[in-house]
């Protein structure tokens, strides 16, 4: 066995559901579980580099408090005492929240994101800050200002991004679950690259309050987990209307975990979009993994229908105009005045802004701010931004039409398996690799990435199950069935 | 007819709008990369979008109003503790904005 195998195969297959049971039966304490994960972290994360920071003393103290609650019959839920890793763009009161950017060096979050409040109410213990592409801009976690996270399945390859730290932490057994955020695929693509499950809920399903904004009309928080049941468990906890997020939908949760006990695959109508297989960059092994998955569903009695998403090829162009436009506006708040780092070389206020932002932002973030500012600038707004918004309407309508004919759409999560670190030097090439995840964010619908096999170079392949707005139940059921089959 | 999408991007000007002081290397690099991205985005012109309404937002929810009541606020000391520079434990301190004649401080 070589080192590369070691990072995944020696990871204990912990899940939320199994560990909750172990806590309930008294087989393990929250403290023991926390200590085990910290030990695992010490043994692998020098290489994997998935965490920016873990406050070990605080984790242990919270785990002990949970054990006390359990002992005195005051557990907050059956999950009380389970650790969960948090992406570095989600606010946890008293902890750093730096979005893996130098410009937020030294910043401490002053309040809990709503998702953190919900998790704490259920007794979860926040376990560290996971690495990411700076401000969630990237598909490889190579744009973190601090660490190069490595894929636990093959350390010469990227873990995907932008939630690469979260996916690698779960995949290498340092966390039993993690939160990520998904603006154009940042939960689903790293999950597929690292052989774990990633769920992007419907836009508005989970509160964005306390998530540092990248592109506000596209961002959504979701879980990265070892299996589909855990994704359902976390969505049950996270999905609730939040008055603090004006885009939060007026619905609660749908009993997602419970729905997994009543899966009838013969009543499922699975749509396969023909345009997704015409994509130039689709690798042979990903194509065949998707085809095998279609065959599996068909054999089990699901109906298979070909559907059409004719505007797919415009999605990447529309997305990178809309997302960068929103980012250029959202990131204007980082000016060195109220928080984070401030340039010491400036003589006046204007220079403070210019020099702070030049020194504080990394290459990809600057590139996107420039692009976003350009497409919003006078004389170009109609040619780019306005056009992209209209394409967004067409992409959304494509999905609405397709969901007239099917319940769930099956697609690749990414055209290839994880690429080598440093292999994507051209930004446009990297953007194009998001082709299968981006349309889902533009349409505001939900999707889950589920690992189906391990391909060449020991790299996992994931498929994506896409659902209509608010149809998380359908994709979780279809995904749960699939994961038990493979 | 001149199409506005054919214009080259004045990165130095855009950087100023975005409050970024780019160095020369970044300017020439972004010039090349952003023109290549915009060139790719020209494909959007293939689509007939004359009668299509724009989508700014995926969910069709309406604006949310609430009563203007005083609620929880952040603790001032905690907020100021995050700031690079403060004054009298009450204010964010910023560098001089307007240089008054004959005086160093504004």
What does this entry show, briefly?
The complex is a heterodimer of chains A (486) and B (106). Chain A is α/β, with parallel strands linked by helices.
Question: First CA to last CA of chain A: what distance?
Answer: 24 Å
* Gyration radius from CA atoms of chain A, angstroms: 21 Å
Number of strands of chain B: 2
CATH architecture of one domain in chain A: Alpha-Beta Complex
CATH class of one domain in chain A: Alpha Beta
Gross geometry of chain B? flat
Q: What is the N-to-C order of secondary-structure elements of chain B (H for helix, E for strand)?
A: HHHEE
How would you classify the helix and strand content of chain A by structural class? Answer: alpha/beta
Strand order of the largest sheet of chain B: 1-2
Shape of chain A: globular
- Terminal Cα span of chain B: 51 Å
N-to-C SSE string of chain A, H for helix and E for strand: HHHEHEHEHEHEEHHEHEHHHHEHHEEH
CATH topology name of one domain in chain A, in short, is Amidase signature (AS) enzymes
Mean pLDDT over the residues of chain A: 96
Report on the architecture of this protein:
The complex is a heterodimer of chains A (486) and B (106). By secondary structure, chain A is α/β, with parallel strands linked by helices. Chain A has a domain at 16-263: Amidase signature (AS) enzymes (Alpha-Beta Complex), CATH 3.90.1300. Chain A has 17 helices and 11 strands. In chain A, strands 1-3-2-4-6-5-10-11-9-7-8 form an 11-stranded mixed β-sheet, with helices on both faces. The longest helix of chain A is centred in the C-terminal third of the chain and has 21 residues, at 382-402. Chain A is globular, with a radius of gyration of 21 Å. Chain B has 106 residues and is mostly helical. Chain B has a domain at 11-45: Histone, subunit A, CATH 1.10.20. Chain B has 3 helices and 2 strands. Chain B starts with 10 loop residues before the first helix and ends in a 14-residue tail after the last strand. Residues 1-5 of chain B have low confidence and may be disordered. Chains A and B meet through helix 11, helix 12, helix 13, helix 14 and helix 15 of A and helix 1, helix 2 and helix 3 of B.
């Amino acid at each position: 066995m070589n080192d590369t195998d070691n990072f995944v195969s020696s990871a204990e297959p912990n899940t939320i559901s199994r560990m909750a049971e172990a806590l309930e039966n008294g087989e393990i304490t929250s403290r023991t579980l926390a200590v085990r994960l910290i030990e695992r972290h010490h043994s692998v994360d020098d290489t994997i580099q998935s965490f920016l920071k873990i406050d070990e003393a605080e984790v242990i103290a919270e785990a002990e408090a949970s054990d006390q609650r359990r002992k005195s019959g005051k557990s907050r839920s059956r999950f009380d005492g389970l650790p969960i890793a948090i992406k570095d763009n989600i606010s946890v009161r008293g902890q750093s929240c730096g979005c893996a950017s130098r410009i937020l060096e030294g910043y401490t979050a002053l309040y809990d994101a709503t998702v953190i409040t919900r998790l704490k109410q259920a007794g979860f213990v926040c376990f560290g800050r996971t690495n990411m592409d700076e401000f969630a801009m990237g598909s490889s976690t190579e744009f973190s200002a601090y660490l190069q996270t490595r894929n636990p399945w093959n350390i010469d390859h990227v873990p995907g991004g932008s939630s690469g730290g979260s996916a690698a932490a779960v995949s290498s057994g340092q966390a039993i679950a993690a939160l990520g955020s998904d603006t154009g695929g940042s939960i689903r693509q790293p999950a597929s690259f690292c052989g774990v499950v990633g769920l992007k809920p419907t836009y508005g399903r989970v509160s964005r309050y306390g998530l540092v904004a990248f592109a506000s009309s596209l961002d959504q928080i979701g879980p990265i987990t070892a299996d589909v049941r855990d994704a359902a468990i976390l969505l049950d906890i996270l999905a609730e209307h939040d008055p603090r997020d004006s885009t939060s939908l007026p619905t609660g949760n749908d009993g997602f975990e419970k729905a997994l006990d009543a899966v009838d695959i013969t009543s499922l109508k699975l749509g396969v979009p023909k345009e997704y297989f015409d994509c130039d960059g689709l690798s042979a092994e990903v194509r065949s993994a998707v085809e095998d998955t279609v065959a599996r569903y068909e054999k089990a009695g699901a109906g298979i229908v070909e559907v059409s998403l004719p505007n797919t090829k415009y999605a990447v162009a529309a997305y990178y105009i809309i997302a960068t436009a929103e980012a250029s506006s959202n990131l204007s708040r980082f000016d060195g005045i109220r928080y984070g780092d401030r340039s010491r070389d400036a003589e006046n206020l204007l220079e403070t802004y210019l020099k702070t932002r030049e020194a504080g932002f990394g290459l990809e973030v600057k590139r996107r701010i420039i692009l976003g500012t350009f497409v919003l600038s006078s004389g170009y707004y109609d040619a780019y931004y306005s056009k992209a918004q209209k394409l967004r309407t067409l992409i959304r309508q494509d999905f609405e039409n397709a969901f007239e004919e099917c319940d769930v759409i099956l697609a690749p999560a990414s055209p290839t398996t994880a690429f080598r670190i440093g292999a994507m030097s051209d930004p446009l090439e990297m953007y194009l690799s998001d082709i299968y995840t981006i349309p889902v964010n533009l349409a505001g619908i939900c999707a889950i990435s589920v690992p189906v096999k391990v391909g060449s170079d020991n790299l996992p392949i994931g498929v994506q199950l896409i659902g209509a707005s608010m149809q998380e139940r359908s994709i979780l059921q279809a995904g749960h069935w699939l994961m038990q089959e493979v | 007819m001149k199409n506005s999408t054919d214009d080259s991007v004045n990165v130095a000007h855009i950087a100023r709008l975005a409050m970024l002081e780019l160095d020369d290397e970044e300017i020439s690099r972004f010039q090349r990369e952003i023109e290549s991205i915009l060139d790719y985005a020209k494909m959007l012109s293939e689509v007939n979008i004359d009668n299509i309404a724009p989508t700014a937002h995926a969910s069709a929810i309406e604006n949310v109003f609430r009563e203007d009541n005083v609620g929880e606020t952040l603790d001032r000391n905690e907020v100021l503790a995050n700031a690079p520079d403060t004054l009298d434990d009450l204010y964010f301190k910023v560098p001089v904005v307007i240089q008054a004649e004959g005086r160093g401080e504004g």
